[in-house]
Structures are given as structure tokens and as C-alpha cells.
Specification:
The complex is a heterodimer of chains A (169) and B (200).
Chain A lengths: L3 H15 L2 H17 L8 H19 L19 H4 L1 E4 H8 L4 H11 L5 H8 L3 H25 L4 E3 L6
Antiparallel strand pairs in A: 1-2
Helix pairs in contact in A: 1-2, 1-3, 1-6, 2-3, 7-8
Chain B lengths: L1 E3 H11 L4 H52 L1 H14 L6 E2 L3 H7 L11 H4 L4 E10 L2 E9 L5 E8 L2 H4 L12 E5 L2 E8 L2 E7 L1
Antiparallel strand pairs in B: 2-3, 3-4, 4-5, 5-8, 6-7, 7-8
Classes of the chains: A mainly alpha (169), B alpha+beta (200).
């Protein structure tokens, strides 16, 4: 059984996918029901396993509702980027919240896995069952999006952002 | 105040939490599922065990039947013939003449004959009727012996694939003799016909 802390972590993961609290709760409940019905004797990590159920369920829901939640990204120009590049970014909390709503599902999921679980790009690729190049491309796009937001914000209020690797690594 | 992006994201995500009501619902969901599994586990185990045992019995019976049928095929013939002998059905043709018998059984793939082995017992023919042995159409000829007891002789085409290897009179092999339901049964092959006699 999952304790309250774990349930909250799973809810936060659902929220990073759906970006909607009610949908996140529904997703968690559905995934939990599926998880409880399954034979888990061969499962090494219950948290990892239910995250996979959540993700598959979310994709199914998106397909059913004809929502395109994951943009196919095959941009290989940023393959040299690593999650380390995100570590160098400094940001103010209120800017995080503003930037968060600009991100798409795939980007929010990567940030969740990176920030909450401390995953590297390789681990994220494994978790998402995606090619590492795709994950790196998403990180690249994610960083660009954040930089744009930072620039907009610094133009209006210059003191809110410091980026150690402005313009690249 | 500036902070690393990771910290900022983490703080932002952790701000969102399930309400007490939602947590209660999810904890209850888990508890109920666990309780249901525990409650029904013995039943599921019992059903599984029952199915396994039933399947085992079926397999054992099937194997026993198959094994038994291979070992006692002649006994099965004997039992079938003895049953027919005891429950005598009305004759379809009443005659003491083999010519009449041969002209009556036109639906057979063989010609009923006078058996050399059976003929030595001085039985008197009463008539005959169609019947079958192990699903193969046969002629049932009915006689009485000198004591007045009824004797039946079954003749059908011999197929070793169906009836297995049986003693062949022409090769000097004596007929099989066995008892079924208190009836004396003799089985042999003569002139390529399977012969089975039944006598009380």
C-alpha cells in the first residue's frame, strides 16, 4: 500500500502530466485501481510501476479525447545538452510558476523527473521509454522556452533572473 | 530571492497536495481492495483447488479408461455380446435355413456363413436379426442347444484395426473363452469373419 506521502508524490506526477488538479486526481485514482488489481510479485519498484501505469493511462486518455499531449521531437542539434545545463539556471520562485504554465506535458514530465526524482537524462529516457536523443532535444527546447521567459521577465524587472550559463551551457 | 531551477520546480510541484478527503478516499480504496483480496483469497484458492482436482480426476479416469480399454478389448466385446444375449430382442427372420439367412441379410458387407467351429455343437437355428459389435454392423443368429438353452452367434466382418488381433481358426488357434455377466463367450476369427458366440 502507498502511504500518504507517496500518494502525494504520485498526485504531483499526475499534475505534471495533466496540469489540472481534478484530472490529476482522476488519473491517480484510475491508475491506483489498475495497480491494485494486478499481480505485482515480479515488480521491483511499486512507485516506478505505478508511474508507468499513470503514464500509459494518461496517453490512453489523451488518445481517447484526441488530445495531442506529446509533440514528436526529433531535433538532434541539441544532443550535447544534458540535464546538467538545467542545474546552472537560477530563478526566482514566482517566475517558476509563470514559466510552468507555458510548458507542455512532455516538458513538465521531464522537469518532474529531474527535479523531484533527481533523474539524469539517461534515467529520464529509460523511465519514459524514449530515445535519449529525444529527451535531450526536449531539454534543449525546455531550456530555450525558460530563457525566453526569463528574458521577457528581465526586460520588465531586471533583478528577477540570473542565469549562470546565459546563452548556452 | 534567486534559487536553482531544480529547487524552484520542486517547491512549485510540492505546493500541490491531495486534500484530506482525497487522501482518505485513496487510502480507503487501497484498504478495501486489500480486504477484498484477503476475504476472497480462501474462496479463490478453493475454486482453484477444486478445478485442479476435478481436472486431475478427469485425466485419471480418461487414462484409466484408455488403459483399460486397451487391456480388455475382448472383454468389452464379450460384455456387449453378453448384454445382447441376455436382452434378447425379437427375431427379424425366423428360419432354420442358412440360405434364408443369407438372403435376408442383404445390408451387410459380408455373407453370413455356417461356422465350422460353432457347427460342431449341434445347435438348432431359430432365426436372426441385425445387430452390431463395437459399432460394426453384424448378424445375430439365434440357436437353441440340445438342452433347450438359447445360444447366440454374432458374425461380422473382421477388421484387426477395430477388433485387435484375435485367434484365427484357420491358423489352428483355439477360440478365446471368457465369461461376461455369467454368460460364456467364445471369440474367434473364421474365414475372415469375426465370430462371437454366447451361451448361458
Amino acid at each position: 500500500m502507498f502511504d500518504q506521502q507517496q500518494l502525494n508524490q504520485l498526485y504531483q506526477y499526475c499534475l505534471s502530466l495533466t496540469s489540472h488538479s481534478a484530472n490529476a486526481y482522476d488519473l491517480l485514482q484510475t491508475a491506483l485501481e489498475k495497480f491494485l488489481k494486478q499481480d505485482k510479485r515480479q515488480v521491483e519498484s511499486h512507485m516506478g510501476y505505478i508511474r508507468r501505469i499513470i503514464r500509459n493511462q494518461f496517453i490512453d486518455d489523451c488518445r481517447r479525447q484526441q488530445i495531442i499531449a506529446f509533440d514528436p521531437i526529433e531535433d538532434t542539434e541539441a544532443l550535447s545538452l544534458e540535464t546538467r545545463s538545467l542545474d546552472q539556471v537560477m530563478i526566482e520562485q514566482d517566475l517558476v510558476e509563470k514559466a510552468w504554465v507555458l510548458l507542455n506535458t512532455a516538458e513538465r514530465e521531464i522537469l518532474y523527473l529531474w527535479a523531484m526524482l533527481g533523474y539524469s537524462s539517461s534515467e529520464i529516457a529509460k523511465e519514459l521509454d524514449s530515445p535519449r536523443g529525444t529527451v535531450l532535444s526536449r531539454i534543449h527546447r525546455l531550456k530555450q522556452k525558460l530563457q525566453n521567459k526569463f528574458q521577457e521577465q528581465s526586460t520588465s524587472t531586471p533583478s528577477t533572473l540570473t542565469q549562470a550559463d546565459k546563452g548556452g551551457k | 530571492m534567486k534559487q536553482p531551477l531544480r529547487t524552484g520546480i520542486k517547491n512549485h510541484i510540492e505546493e500541490e497536495k491531495l486534500s484530506e478527503l482525497q487522501l482518505d478516499q485513496l487510502m480507503t480504496l487501497q484498504h478495501e481492495t486489500a480486504t477484498y483480496s484477503l476475504k476472497h483469497k480462501p474462496l479463490l484458492q478453493a475454486v482453484t483447488t477444486y478445478i485442479s482436482v476435478a481436472a486431475s480426476i478427469m485425466i485419471a479416469l480418461f487414462m484409466l479408461f484408455e488403459l483399460g480399454s486397451n487391456q480388455t478389448f475382448t472383454e468389452q466385446i464379450a460384455h456387449e455380446v453378453a448384454k445382447n444375449h441376455i436382452n434378447l430382442k425379437p427375431l427379424e427372420v425366423k428360419t432354420s435355413s442358412m440360405d434364408v439367412i443369407q438372403s435376408y441379410f442383404t445390408q451387410l458387407d459380408f455373407m453370413p456363413i455356417t461356422s465350422d467351429y460353432f457347427g460342431q455343437f449341434s445347435n438348432t437355428m431359430l432365426g436372426g436379426r441385425y445387430c452390431s459389435i463395437k459399432g460394426v454392423t453384424a448378424a445375430q443368429l439365434r440357436y437353441t442347444n440340445q438342452s433347450g438353452d438359447k445360444v447366440t452367434l454374432y458374425e461380422t466382418q473382421y477388421d484387426a484395426g477395430i477388433f485387435s488381433e484375435l485367434p484365427k481358426l484357420e491358423q489352428g488357434e483355439p477360440p478365446l473363452e471368457l465369461y461376461a455377466k455369467g454368460v460364456k463367450i467364445n471369440i474367434w476369427v473364421e474365414k475372415d469373419l469375426l465370430m462371437v458366440s454366447a451361451q448361458e
